[in-house]
Amino acid sequence: MTTSSTVPAQCEPELLGQTVVVIGGSAGIGLATARRARAEGAGVILTGRDPERLEQAGGELEAQRTAAFDANDPAELKRFFDAVPKPIDHVLVTAGGPHYGRVLQMDFAEARDAFSGHVMLALEVARNTVDKIRPGGALLLIGGTGGRKIGLGNGIASAVTAALPPLTASLALEMAPVRVNLIAPGFVDTQLSASILGDDLEARRKELRATLPIGRVVGPEDVAALAVHIMVNTALTGATYDIDGGQQFVS
């Protein structure tokens, strides 16, 4: 009696031959997504503010190109995209951090920066990529779930959080057949989180491990896996995808 065994077919990388641009790709969610995209066969183009950190990330991932500049500068952003050969397959925008504080205590510049760092940046990236992203490709924006809770000190964060889903849906209609989606993380264990929390970081990690339904802290690799799935799944557009381990239900 002879037996035969089947060798599992090797899956072809899901982004093979595609180009992924990551705005804010030198650390955190952006870098993790660039790594995941490279593992799936994509070439990556990275931007960031810190030239040294960006050079290191670009070398690690053998990036097609890197560009160090402030993405919130519309002229610099346009100059960057003008120099990028088309077509691009996917763009992820991770630049811009959260802004907290009482609204009435913020000066005009602080309030403007809070909106510019997310809403206006998303709009400017969309304007510069609408003719560069191939049909069926994706523009991915990053929002959050934490700002959905209204409270003292959350005013601007809540306003920005509320603005991003309808902006995403509107862009999905205007940029079609390019797809536009929003990823909404809660706490993600990144260098940015560490810089915000400082000495309170480990206590926050411990609290989340004890309370989150998933029993662990969400990491940048978790968000990266979702981002690449959205790039690959061509039925997804105009939607917001929460990835917070259930944080919004237990906080």
Topology (SSEs and partners):
Elements: E1 19-23, H1 28-39, E2 43-48, H2 51-61, E3 65-68, H3 74-83, E4 88-93, H4 108-129, E5 133-142, H5 155-175, E6 179-185, H6 191-197, H7 201-211, H8 220-232, E7 240-243, H9 247-250
Parallel strand pairs: 1-2, 1-4, 2-3, 4-5, 5-6, 6-7
How would you sum up this structure in a few lines?
With 251 residues, the protein is α/β, with parallel strands linked by helices. The chain has helices spanning 28-39, 51-61, 74-83, 108-129, 155-175, 191-197, 201-211, 220-232, 247-250; strands at 19-23, 43-48, 65-68, 88-93, 133-142, 179-185, 240-243.
Question: Your description of this structure?
Answer:
44% of the residues lie in helices and 17% in strands. The longest helix has 22 residues, at 108-129. The chain has one domain (19-243): Rossmann fold (3-Layer(aba) Sandwich). The protein has nine helices and seven strands. With 251 residues, it is an alpha/beta fold. The protein has helices at residues 28-39, 51-61, 74-83, 108-129, 155-175, 191-197, 201-211, 220-232, 247-250, and strands at residues 19-23, 43-48, 65-68, 88-93, 133-142, 179-185, 240-243. The protein is globular. Strands 3-2-1-4-5-6-7 form a seven-stranded parallel sheet, sandwiched between helices.
